[in-house]
Amino acid sequence: MSTSQQTDPLIGRLVDGRYRVRARIARGGMATVYVATDLRLERRVALKVMHGHLSDDTVFQSRFIQEARAAARLADPHVVNVFDQGQDGDMAYLVMEYLPGITLRELLREQRRLTVPQAVSILDAVLSGLAAAHKAGIVHRDVKPENVLLAEDGRIKIGDFGLARATTANTASGAQLLGTIAYLAPELVTRGTADARSDIYAIGIMLYEMLTGEQPYKGEQPMQIAFQHATDSVPRPSVKNPGVPEPLDELVLWATERSPDERPVDAREMLQRLREIERELGIAPVVARTAPMGVVRETGTATGELTAVLPASTTTPVPAPEEADNAGRLRVATRRRRTRGAWLVILVLLLAALAGGLGWWFGSGPGSLVAVADVSGMTFDEASDRLAQDSLVAVQQGRNSLEVAPGEVIDTDPPSGTRVDRDSEINVFVSLGPAEAVFESFAGLPEADARARLTDQSVTVPGDSSTYFNDAPAGTVIGVVVRPAGAPEDGSQDVACIDGCVVHQGDTARLDVSLGPVPDVTGASEGKARSTLEGVGLVVADPSQTEASDSVEEGRVIKVLGKEDGSPLAPGDTVTLVVSTGPPLFAVPDLVGKTLAEARKAAEDAGFTIDYDDRWDAFPDPFTKVESQNPDPQEMKRKGTVISLRIAAAL
Predict the structure, then answer these.
(1) Does 128 have pLDDT greater than 90?
(2) Edge-to-edge order in the sheet of strand 409-413
């Protein structure tokens, strides 16, 4: 028994004092199905139990009870019979007939696509069951291969009327629209309404899938598929499978018309057309009574009949030896009958013992279990096919992984090698690739904290960070750049992350860390400035540059020049000192020959002042003239220097 079966609390429980639960068969969105024994009637049944978290939901409870009532009203050999419905404590359940076999989905998974006679035979049975439902005013609403059962004795039935509703109450809005998206009719997508013709649309999609091995519409998101149902027309199956006859092409197109008014009005009308096609193609759908695992097998006959007849065994009696008289012959015949009777009894006992042993071995002994195959490294489809070979059902689950490429199987639950019941569900974990790593701002974080934050989300940080002189406190992060795994070295795909980012586990990050600001050597002597800067790892160019300064004393440092592009300095970079030569010198203007006012203005414009005998201020300016000056014209002096003037009267 599988781990999931062993931990299921219902296994072995007596439900409602009548139904002994034996094993779990399947699990769906609303309920789990078990095989159980009806102790009152001593027969095997299928017990459908509503999930516990839905038991308090009156909507789901009513839908669950509705399934029992809907299916119980249908007395048709192609509809799964419902025997009972009840409540045991907080557990709601249905009791249905038990049909050992497989679903149409499992058959499609095994064969990919079916032969024309197989598809026609299955469609004939499904339409027969649906015709009974539609005649009773019931819409199935969830027609799909998972709900078509192929019994071991050859019977084909449609089940799971959990979504069925009366045709007069045809609105399916919001949470009520639970049908599988791949088989959803356009009117359910666009208007949320459904009737018998919605079932016909789903039948058309299912027929397309049986004939081609794939669904007509594909997409990564359910809404993409729903949009195609609402806007596109289903193509002819013969485009994918040239062996499909034209009448079946036309039947698919008729059933999948986007407008409900252009489809068959119900399953009965479509079944009538199918029967005409069967006669045209010479196909007589006959259910095989001995086909194992519910698979309808084709014998390859010209008529396309699917019945496989097993030859009966015969025995030829060995003639008895002649006797001399009638009495002797009678004694010989009597002994032969006694001997033959004894051997028959022994043979029957041996066969009974063998059958019992085989029944135990394959029913509850070691032969009923299969080992989970190792499917790691495969795609999900490959893994599903491999597990199906051992009668196991693959259930796809996603999981992020740094080691396994996206789309490849990581492992399974139960793990490979575990022995489980046939038809058990196996969780197959498929790699989604590295998980996203989401970061907030790193600005101002200590380097150790930034490294811890990155490594906690599996982003690799090399051993040495890049360090730069910056106004931020020493040891804090001033830059984070993340390179995606497999990205080129040219940095074209690098992601700046100092202010936060969304990257992936397995990427690589580079940190830039502050060394604090470059030491301020302004006003220091050139020698002192050199030793200070070289002490923090900078290289000081020789010779220094010089520059006049009004504010910095001659021989003192005015400033430090870094990189021409202004980028941050790092240890080993070269800087240049700019040393003051004192205040700047300017040429003294030539004031000789100018009037006093002209001389004053010229001196002020050049940044100088004048000194003269102020008695000349009493004279009209035109009667004044500069005879000489000190300093002489063109001498280089600091601005503000006083120019002494000798004034004379102008004649």
Answers:
(1) yes
(2) 393-399, 425-431, 409-413
Phi-psi region of 559 (alpha: psi -120 to 50; beta: other; left: phi over 0): beta
Candidates 521, 502, 512; CA nearest to 476 is 512
* Confidence (pLDDT) at 198: 93
Q: Which helix (H) or strand (E) holds 388?
A: helix 380-388
Residues in the chain, overall count: 651
Specify the 3-state DSSP secondary structure of 93.
strand
Read out DSSP for 292-313?
A: GGG-------TT-----PPPPP
Q: What local confidence, expressed as pLDDT, does residue 6 receive?
A: 52
Average predicted confidence (pLDDT) for the chain: 83
From residue 189, give the alpha-carbon distance in Å to each of 173, 193, 218, 418.
10, 8, 16, 43
Q: Which of 28, 253, 230, 40 is nearest to 146 (CA)?
A: 28
Alpha carbon of residue 537 to chain centroid: 52
How far, in Å, CA of 329 to CA of 45, rounded? 56
Return d(Cα 110, Cα 393) in angstroms, integer: 11
Question: For residue 628, what are the β-bridge partners?
Answer: 646
- Mean per-residue pLDDT for 249-272? 95
H helices then E strands: how many in the chain?
14, 31
Known active-site residue 611: no
Q: Which one-letter amino acid corresponds to residue 436?
A: E
* DSSP bridge partners of 561: 576
3-state secondary structure of 549: coil
470 secondary structure, DSSP code: -
Cα distance between residue 230 and residue 207, in whole Å: 19
Angle at 166 between CA 160 and CA 170, to 5 degrees: 105
The angle subtended at Cα 447 by Cα 443 and Cα 452, nearest 5°, is: 100
CA–CA dist 63, 258 (Å, integer): 28
Catalytic residue among 76, 142, 494, 512: 142
All residues at 6 or more sequence positions from 365 whose CB lies less than 8 Å from its CB, including other chains: none
Structure confidence at residue 104 (pLDDT)? 94
d(CA 371, CA 373): 6
The rounded distance, in Å, linking the Cα atoms of 461 and 503 is: 14
For residue 401 the two structure tokens come to 């992984």
Give 585's DSSP letter.
Answer: E
Alpha-carbon span 200 to 187, nearest angstrom: 12
- Categorise residue 15: left if φ over 0, alpha if ψ from -120 to 50, beta otherwise: beta
